[in-house]
Design goal:
four-stranded mixed β-sheet, about 150 residues
Length: about 150
């Protein structure tokens, strides 16, 4: 162990714990899918197993994994995940999940294909969800940042 580590860093972490100060790193994390257009989003169930998935087509029912014979289409993030990286003497430990991210998905049968929102005219959605998607994507392509 280096002298800086034993003389400064170790005692500083001990003092922070004694004073009940947090030296651990907490991170809020959104899913990586939220910046993708609907047709670019993944639809394989195994890609969503690290999330708490709410099924749009089943009145908000939470899906249990593994999901067999279904295609999951990501709609949007509901809540971010909360992760903790505890401080170690020299670095941070691997992240621990305190709260899994919650996402809204549309679960359809494999034979029905992936979910596609209904459209009234070219580029115009019939639902509020579709309209929000169009507006969010338009801002994203125009250079606005949203999270």
């Amino acid at each position: 162990m280096s002298s800086v580590q034993s003389a400064i860093i170790g005692p500083a972490i001990s003092l922070a714990h004694k004073l009940q100060l947090s030296v651990d790193k907490y991170t809020v994390w959104w899913s990586p899918h939220h910046r993708l257009r609907l047709e670019e989003r993944p639809s394989m169930p195994y890609e969503f197993s690290n999330f708490e998935c709410i099924n749009l087509l089943r009145s908000g029912q939470t899906l249990k994994f593994p999901v067999q014979g279904r295609i999951l289409t990501y709609m949007f993030d509901v809540t971010p995940g909360l992760f903790l990286e505890p401080a170690k003497a020299e670095t941070f430990a691997d992240p621990k999940v305190l709260k899994r991210p919650k996402i809204l998905v549309a679960a359809t049968q494999e034979e029905a294909g992936p979910y596609r929102p209904s459209v009234t005219r070219q580029g115009e959605s019939a639902t509020l969800l579709g309209w929000l998607e169009e507006k969010a994507y338009a801002k994203h392509t125009l250079g606005y940042r949203y999270t």
